[in-house]
Amino acid sequence: MVHHDEPTLQRVPYADSCLIASGSGIHQDCDLAHVDERPSVAAIFDIDGVLLRRTAGIALAKALFRDRRPGPAHLFHVAIGAVLYVAGFRTPYATHALAGRLLAGRHVDRVAALCAAEADALLSAGSHEAAIDRLGWHRRCGHRVVLASGAPAPIAAALGARLGIADVVATAYGVEAGRYTGALLEPARVGEQKLACIEKLTAHLQFRLEDAYAYCDDFVDRDLLARVGHPRAVNPDRRLATLADQRAWPTLRWS
User: Residue 164 CB: number of other CB atoms within 10 A?
Assistant: First the structure.
């Protein structure tokens, strides 16, 4: 069932949305039960399929490939990752192996510059307008917005910076002497790993997950949705749509 429990807002262009400060006051479109003098409620947004219509990791991989093609030693692995993704095996291995191979050997500053440009392109042409609306709504209510995604950390951080979001949970890669090694520092931030990071972050911020909102589109994030007080299934895949219906979680259709 599709629920429309929060108000529909006039769209806030993403270029302006970062100017809305947390705790900016009580607005008529806020749920007053969740407004405090300081941000005390977390609003957790996935990136792929929720904030964006495209996949951030693949967008990054394409930008890296255009910038500089990998050498023969890495090209085979890049090709395998691309084939797996195109074939529909959009697992953490497929996306992170592809991104990791393309990141290997690149200077962090060059990657940051590429990610900043790609973030602009993704947000201007590839974001869900309803997601940008909802970000603005949470900020009006004084909530603290968090991006939580399995996407590679460089592109996730660039998207967060462009939107004025300081709290970003994403998949980090190793760096040595200012260059990416291409190896994952820790397991990809999906499923249980994402939830564990969110629990640590909200504990550090002294927020209660029982008060938090979470917006996810993939069945793999079912544990996060079950953990928060205000789960939202956004354009859910088949299994998540079934689970949301069983648990009476609101389902949002963003186009």
Answer: 16
pLDDT on residue 14: 30
How far apart (Å, rounded) are the C-alpha atoms in residues 136 and 35?
Answer: 14
More confident residue, 242 or 87: 242
Q: Give the model's confidence band at 100: pLDDT under 50 very low, under 70 low, under 90 confident, else very high.
A: confident
Q: Domain residue spans in the chain?
A: 14-54+112-252
CA–CA dist 209, 199 (Å, integer): 8
- The CATH number for 14-54+112-252, chosen from 3.30.390.50, 3.40.50.1000, 3.40.50.720, 3.40.50.1580, is 3.40.50.1000
How far is 203 from 227, CA to CA, in rounded Å?
Answer: 13
Task: Determine contact, residues 30/116, Cβ cutoff 8 Å.
Answer: no
DSSP-assigned states of every residue in 37-52:
SS---EEEE-TBTTTB
pTM of the model: 0.79
Closest CA to 122 of 65, 189, 48: 48
69 Rama class: left (phi>0) / alpha (psi -120 to 50) / beta: beta
- Alpha carbons 142 and 68: distance in angstroms, whole number: 42
List the one residue out of 86, 55, 63 whose CA is nearest residue 171. Answer: 55
Share of the chain above pLDDT 90, in %: 56
- Check the CA dihedral 191-118-132-127 and report its sign: negative
Q: What is the pLDDT of residue 24?
A: 27
Q: Going by C-beta distance under 8 Å and a sequence separation of 6 or more, which residues neighbour residue 98?
A: 57, 58, 61, 78, 81, 82, 85
> Distance of CA 151 to CAs 3, 61, 93, Å?
28, 11, 12
Helix (H) or strand (E) holding 132: helix 129-140
